[in-house]
Amino acid sequence: RNSLKHVTPHQLRFICDHCNRRFADKTKLRDHIEEKHLHKTYQCPICFKPSKNRVGLDQHIRNVHKGRPNNKICHHCGKGFPTKVQLESHIRTHTGERPFICE
């Protein structure tokens, strides 16, 4: 069976002023405006990876960081990271190292 619920137009009371798209609740409308029209991004507080929306950020944190200890410690500032790769990337913020070549 199809798990999608049929939504009638009167259930979609919240309308985007920018594109007239309709939503069932204020939170969905707000998230839509922030992502599609304001181009707002959300940043992971652990590794600083940007995400287009809150759902993506929550999934990232759950998949990448949850349950992993921040036991890779930066010797410059004492901040902890769950992976060696994240620690190495962070250390470059202190050293100024830029190992990637711009084209």
Automatic annotation (TrEMBL):
<dbReference type="InterPro" id="IPR036236">
    <property type="entry name" value="Znf_C2H2_sf"/>
</dbReference>
<feature type="domain" description="C2H2-type">
    <location>
        <begin position="14"/>
        <end position="37"/>
    </location>
</feature>
<feature type="domain" description="C2H2-type">
    <location>
        <begin position="42"/>
        <end position="70"/>
    </location>
</feature>
<dbReference type="GO" id="GO:0008270">
    <property type="term" value="F:zinc ion binding"/>
</dbReference>
<protein>
    <recommendedName>
        <fullName>C2H2-type domain-containing protein</fullName>
    </recommendedName>
</protein>
<feature type="domain" description="C2H2-type">
    <location>
        <begin position="72"/>
        <end position="99"/>
    </location>
</feature>
<dbReference type="GO" id="GO:0005634">
    <property type="term" value="C:nucleus"/>
</dbReference>
<keyword id="KW-0862">Zinc</keyword>
<dbReference type="Pfam" id="PF00096">
    <property type="entry name" value="zf-C2H2"/>
</dbReference>
<comment type="similarity">
    <text>Belongs to the snail C2H2-type zinc-finger protein family.</text>
</comment>
<dbReference type="GO" id="GO:0000978">
    <property type="term" value="F:RNA polymerase II cis-regulatory region sequence-specific DNA binding"/>
</dbReference>
<dbReference type="InterPro" id="IPR013087">
    <property type="entry name" value="Znf_C2H2_type"/>
</dbReference>
<keyword id="KW-0863">Zinc-finger</keyword>
<dbReference type="Pfam" id="PF13894">
    <property type="entry name" value="zf-C2H2_4"/>
</dbReference>
<keyword id="KW-0539">Nucleus</keyword>
<dbReference type="GO" id="GO:0000981">
    <property type="term" value="F:DNA-binding transcription factor activity, RNA polymerase II-specific"/>
</dbReference>
<dbReference type="InterPro" id="IPR050527">
    <property type="entry name" value="Snail/Krueppel_Znf"/>
</dbReference>
<keyword id="KW-0677">Repeat</keyword>
<keyword id="KW-0238">DNA-binding</keyword>
<keyword id="KW-0479">Metal-binding</keyword>
